[in-house]
Amino acid sequence: MSTFDPAIYASRRARVCELLGSSGVAVFPAGHETIRSHDTEHPFRASSDVLYLTGFEEPETILVLAPGHELGPTILFVRPRDPEKETWTGRRAGVEGAKARWGADSAFELSEVGARLEAILSGAETLWTRLGSDPALDASLLGILERLRNRKRQPSAAPTVLRDTRDLLHPLRLIKAPEEIDAMRRACAITAEAHTAAMQACRPGLPEYALQAVIEFVFKRHGAAAPSYNTIVGAGVNATILHYIENNAVIQDGDLVLIDAGAELHHYAADITRTFPANGRFTGPQRDLYQLVLEAEEAAIAMCAPGGHWKATHDATIRRLTQGLVDLGILQGEVDGLIESEAFKRFYMHGTGHWLGIDVHDVGPYFAGQEPRPFEPGHVQTIEPGLYIPDAEDIPAPFRGIGIRVEDDVLTTADGVEILTAACPKSIEALEALVGAGWSASI
Ligand code: GLY
Ligand code: MN
Ligand code: MN
What we know:
13 helices, three-stranded antiparallel sheet
């Protein structure tokens, strides 16, 4: 089932075709299933570019946009119908389905891709593809270019310009349209509900994976296809490991619990982090560090309005965190000098945010020329400051081994921001009221 009305995908393809012009051809592969073991596969997810342009989810698919060709503009190469295979591994749209349901003007079985692509590319000026993403397709395209260039006693019919589809499509994916923003609002609402449930369910003595189960239960119960990345549940010092996914330690009384988890709903990602005390009460040092991260986050979010840019949000975050670390006696020295020497990186070693969309680390240029790209209405990004204090002897004892991150998803609007994840509690008072309040699955 496609996420949006077919007309939406058609209008996205029409925009790309305008940029291609009648002499351009663009090729987008959906990718291949990969083996998990023997005859079982990892769950397949089509490439985000193909999802953006068609919503079509089947593996092996190749989408070709060729506005100047008689078979175009939208040409799909798809797996053939096969009753025996479909009995084992599920339904296929086939050539007829690709035309009737997925917007193809022409569709062919994958076995035809080589010969058909050669005909489509013959006489085109520019081939847009993404070399390196699909080696089998690369080899096929390079073979076609070679043959078109070396035709006997005929002039070359090979495209003379080779360009990267990322430069064509990703600036478009960066600006979210109203229907995309609605989808992301829904993904964020489900994710906020899941984090709230995990806070309510938490108690010392539970394994980290029990909270992962709560989170992913809520995601799936609301129809999310999957987490949009591997769920992180880190208690105590595990919270200082940025991408900790073992999730198999027992939560101890006095731990902070960091959960970084997001639902993927209708192909769009949410990405929320919350950190809370396992027993429902922050200790003094935990509270001081948490309040510092929260203030850094609030300062950065306020800068996501039009005209701000990611470098400014990062610089503001670094300044606030560094000042706070000095105030708490964790760093010694002058703030400017500590920023200059990047002393903060021992405690805050990642960026302050990233674009968010069909991919959790979504595509789109971060620069406009040499300068950081200013935020525009329709940009969606995360803001995710954190502090990761090593369990080391030179750190004041009360702060050792504390990991905190707070992450929200922020839409830039015409006159400010909309925090898509605002429903997910994060104030100290709200967390202390919620944690351990109790949760049971309702189905
Ligand atoms: N969950 C991955 C990230 O926050 O970037
Ligand atoms: Mn993130
Ligand atoms: Mn995250």
